[in-house]
Amino acid sequence: MPLARRLLLLAAMTLALTIPASAAPDEDPWSAIDARPNPAWWGEAKFGLFIHWGPYAVPAFSAQNEYAEWYWKALMDESVGHHAIVKSFHAANYGADFDYQDFAPDFTAQLFNPQDWADLFVRSGARYVVLTSKHHDGFALWPSADASRTWNRPWNAVEIGPQRDVLGDLAAATRDAGLKFGIYFSLYEWFNPLYQADPDRFVSEHMIPQFKDVVNRYHPSVIFADGEWEHPAALWHSTEMLDWLFHHSPSAADVVVNDRWGKETRHAHGGYFTTEYGSGMADATHPWEENRGMGHSYGYSRTENLADYTTGREFVLMLADIVSRGGNFLLNIGPTADGRIPVIMQQRLTEIGDWLSINGEAIYGTTPWKRSTQWSAGIIRDSERGQYKSGYDILKLTVAPDPGQAVKEVLFTRKGTDLFAICPVLPAATLRLRDVAAPATTVVTLLGNGTALSWQTDGDDLLIDMPAIDVSRDGGRAAYVFKLAGALTP
Length: 490
Known about the structure:
Glyco_hydro_b, Immunoglobulin-like, alpha/beta, signal, disordered N terminus, EC 3.2.1.51
């Protein structure tokens, strides 16, 4: 064998030994990705905030029960159910010749103060924040040269509109406040000329370079992918991107990803499974997260009224219910085009934060107990389970049931040897926890009260005597949490 050929063969063998493959040639590339454990912080955090913000905040319009961030798609696509409503609104207020991209200069963010936002996020009790780096309209909230290049016009927040690195500014402020920062990243872009002409070239020449750019710049701790449903993961090259993310990116050690990486991947692959405007999953056989807006839309919608907004009490009950089943809760806010968080959204966040400031011990860092719920007497009608817009009436499930319907009178979480019993309604005199055995050394307290409560057993049940609480002075709570310290075996 000629010397030159032997040297080339030796070099090839050396390269094969020094660059390990993420999966064997015959192995499913998802196997290694799915086997990667999530960083511990995500499962301990429990509560995060979603932020949908972009040029769609300028018209801030949606039909009833629809998403305002889908304004452009609804305007242009006759197959969208509320197309006629959006088209009529657009023509009447902006004119038929006004293009969606003409909203960008009015997406000013002139009142955007990332430090104020971060302070509110801390007060809400959230432990992580996920901002739309770009939605399906392709507008980038960071100085993405790829965005402007493929759209053939300024199409990022530094070149037009805010004229600042919105993503970078909020990343710095939230991290300075002690929160984890993540990004939402849409794989597809509705009307990107390159995507419409050649999806394969769009992926290789635009999406993948853009994905690596945003990760290399901001080191996100969460990546919430979306817009995956038109193609399988193979077209998006999702496993290759995730292999790079987990082994070669600056986010490798800290990042967690969801399940939206191809039209076949939801609830099949990814670090955590997602449900959207639903009830979440029944249990914690796989990490999962429910995400929803405060009203019917993620992006800010001026058409939503008070009745469209979920109450603070409902959000607290959702959080407790979701966490009792092993899930995380990602609650969305939609800022205005000038950078304000609507006051009603601020109010909801502070209500949640006020409850967590007293009861967070029963939420953060907890795991599910052997059962998540104690049902009352009556007909049990639990929530629907589904990936998207499944029925979830938390008030009917807890405090305002239909006649004859059972309610979740206690939600359980645990932390080490401590058991937490979360009661949506404060029992009048005695709380009966069915099938709860505890050693005599167990100390029972009501979080926020601190005084040890008397308790006794009755057969297989544990009975807790209620403390005297003046609800008029206490203000009333969305739920009351009893801590049974030392009740469980390690």
